[in-house]
Amino acid sequence: MSLLDRRGGLHTLITQPGDTVASALLRNFIPPTSVVTYCEQNKLVADDHVLDPAQSYEARLIEGYDLVGIRRLFESRDSSASYIRRRLSVADTGMLSMERTPLDLPSAAVHVEATVRETIGEFGLVQGGDRLVLGLSGGVDSGSLLMLLAAYRDAAELPNVEIEAATFQDFDSKWSETFDSAARLAEKHKVRHHVLEAGLAEEVFHLNRPMAQILMLLMETEDAHLAMYADHHSTRRVLEVYADRLGARKIALGLHTTDLLAGLLNSYTTGFDVGPIPQRTVGPYERALSPVPDDVVSLVRG
């Protein structure tokens, strides 16, 4: 498989047996949405197409991104490191540079825990007597946040800190792997686990049909691009209502830094006031946000 850059140069990409087009592109730090991929004789192939070793594939740029330059920033000469801490910097001239710090797994774990612990301490995100409601889907982001908050709770000399994990029950959650993972994580880290019934969203928003059904219908309209915002808003609001029932005023949500950045940029460019970072107050609820490295969970309180 190769990449055709904007100057007509061909660059060989690293692939593995069983790769789809999308997985091969991502392995080479190329967003699938930035290229279209062709098989031999200019046959267009989909992102989920499994690469055939007997065929040749060429990914061609949709727009004039300097993907070759971007990929070069992510290259590392230290192949023995389990984790590379990267910091992308943009100079006044527009030039990009990448700082790289190789870390082994124990050092990476220490780095993540220290980043979250220092952020909590600096901004007073968790204090003695606090009750936090954590939105726990069972996925990587919320699961990582649960482990980090539980570690902080156990290590910090703060009395009576309680963490309540809340998982939304959607139409398939009873049978999903992430739902089971949420329950196991909560039990392992001695956090009370609550399952929010699917009808709670309908009750909060006075709906006449399930929220999951409404979102699917919205996806079929010209306003499909707003479905994500409706989903996020309804999730946060239902979690606030449940926090009220528990007498809690602090809410914890795990968000990936890239998702967080996209949301912030969207808010700024559309004219909405997103409030200060890392702390903000919305109504009676305390919310805080603390981004950490791109592939490490971000701490978000509300």
Care to describe what's here?
The chain has 302 residues and is α/β, with parallel strands linked by helices. The protein has nine helices and 14 strands. The strands form three sheets. It has a seven-stranded mixed beta sheet, sandwiched between helices. It has a five-stranded mixed beta sheet with strand order 2-1-5-3-4, with no helix packed on it. A two-stranded antiparallel sheet has the order 6-7. Strand 13 and strand 14 (298-301) form a beta hairpin. The longest helix is centred in the last third of the chain and has 20 residues, at 227-246. The chain is globular, with a radius of gyration of 22 Å. The relative contact order is 0.10. The model is unreliable at 289-302 (pLDDT under 50).
Structure summary:
By secondary structure, this protein is an alpha/beta fold.
